[in-house]
Amino acid sequence: MFRRLGSSRLWLPVHGAAVYVFLYAPIALLIFFSFNRNPSGTLPVTGYTLDWYRELGNDYFLLSSFWNSLYVAGIATPIATLIGTLCAFGLVRTQFRFKSLFSSMILMPMVVPGILLGAALLIVLRPIMGVPLSIWTAALGHVVVTTPYAVLAVATRLYGYDRRLDAAAADLGASPSRVFWHVTLPLVMPGIIAAALIVFTVSLDTFGVTFFTIGAQGTLPMYIWSQVEMGIRPTVNALGTLFMLGSVAILLCANRLLRQH
Amino acid sequence: MSATLDISLKPRAERRFHVSWPVLAFLPITLLDLVLFTLPMLVMGTASVLVIREFHVSMELTARSYLFFLGSPLYLTILGKTVLLALGVTAACLVLAYPFAIFLTKLPRGIQRTMLVLVILPFWTSYLLRVYAWMTLLGESGLINRGLVGLGLIDEPLRFLLYNNFSVVLVSVYLYLPYAALALYTTLERLDPSLIRAARDLGAKPWQVFWHVTLPLTLPGVFASFIFVFIPMVGEYVTPTLVGGSRGLMIVNIVVSQVQALRFGVASAMAFVIVALILCLVVVLRRAARLERVFGV
């Protein structure tokens, strides 16, 4: 039995390390190949270059889809964050019947495949309401999909909130609204900012719901989709590297905000 | 204690405020989900039994869309295959993630946080690009084939690496492994270690401890992984399109091609069947998976 324990002690870290390699190897290779001079985008390595990064700056469609993405995320982020924050307050601070059912229903837009929600929205918008597709219709879809993320982020922060602080402020004579604006909100603010950052990154990356709800102007994932459908491209390697570094930077900030006290 | 006392001493008007604020808090999200989530799904359900010609809807009831879908052996096969692939991916994720989650819980507290963030990070980075990264690995001119040809181990590129069910499963396991790992980690972390010590002291072998103590107590994590892996997997579109090719098609590929052909009726029928399946799963697994714990409430 002791030998078994010993072998499992070795086996677990080896498996753990293998999982990390599995998770990071494809990303690491993508970054590595973005500096490879070989225009096929893979092996052999024929030298190192920054040309693929330079080429990105000259791609008109890439730049316009990048601005479209910022536009959609810029519309979706404040709305989703506000709605999500309100809901998180309700979920953490009240008890009611069917609360667990309600909270799992709120998670639904996160698990229902985005592309099917997009198709459903398209059916409502096009044949039934006759609304033309645009950045705004895509932003509506993004609000639905990203709000659960905002709820989760703010709820995490609120859950660790010491409610005795509110009670102390009330004991000192603060009105409920004063307690909220001067005590609760400033303390929960890092969670709300983290929620906004998360919603923003998720929106930038959302492919499924965008696919059917955006018109001729594509977002960044739509541009990447049009490129990767044609196969491996060195410029996509470069774009992917920048995109991943950008989202990781934003999310590490969000993570820090959720943890700080 | 003091808080409850506080409320009972408050005048009537203020007490009413305490009752109404949760309604205000839940109103926006309820409206949002009703108008832009529930309603489109219901409309889609309705559209699946109406006659729709391109952009014109006529109010005639018909079961044609369903009969077309259910009468087509090809579509039914793909639906069945999708469910099987999703089950396979879920099982593979659980098998890989379980020991990994145990490994995470055994790490020293300080490193544990960092290692957890490292698990979450790749699934926050672009989903599309992570699938694409596998194309550059498995493709005919991808890293593995070029590498093997370069080393002189093979003359012709291996074609079984990409554009089949195998590549879909491999890439999907890669995509969804972090979800399963996190779900299992959360339940394993809450597990009282004294229960395992007690079982050991009473003479249980390690596998008996796992089978009779650890696994039953972490079943919520297993069910939660089911929700976060199986469900998105049934609706997977990007992976089968990019690495599955014509042999790795899944059901949503068919839905998308129907929408693109403006056959909204058939597309609605298929999508409605998938969404109904997903909803049933969530309702059935919700309690078992302790889904509400995701919110920490």
Quick structural summary:
The complex is a heterodimer of chains A (261) and B (297). Chain A is mainly α.
Return Rg of chain B in Å.
25 Å
Determine the structural class of chain B based on helices, strands and strand pairing.
mainly alpha
* Biggest sheet features of chain A: none
The CATH class of chain A turns out to be Mainly Alpha
Number of domains of chain B: 1
Termini distance of chain A? 44 Å
Query: SSE string of chain A, helix = H, strand = E?
Result: HHHHHHHHHHH
Cα-atom Rg of chain A, whole angstroms? 23 Å
Order of adjacent strands in the largest pleated sheet of chain B: 1-2
Main attributes of the structure:
heterodimer, A: 261 residues, mainly alpha, MetI-like fold, 79% helix, 0% strand, globular, disordered N terminus, B: 297 residues, two-stranded antiparallel ribbon
Topology diagram in text:
The complex is a heterodimer of chains A (261) and B (297).
Chain A: H1 2-33, H2 51-57, H3 60-93, H4 99-111, H5 114-129, H6 135-159, H7 164-171, H8 176-205, H9 208-213, H10 220-228, H11 234-259
Helix pairs in contact in A: 1-11, 2-11, 3-6, 3-8, 3-10, 4-6, 6-8, 7-8, 8-11
Chain B: H1 2-9, H2 12-47, E1 50-53, E2 56-61, H3 64-70, H4 73-105, H5 109-124, H6 127-138, H7 143-150, H8 165-190, H9 193-201, H10 206-217, H11 219-234, H12 238-244, H13 251-260, H14 264-289
Antiparallel strand pairs in B: 1-2
Helix pairs in contact in B: 2-14, 3-14, 4-8, 4-11, 5-8, 6-12, 8-11, 8-12, 9-10, 11-14, 13-14
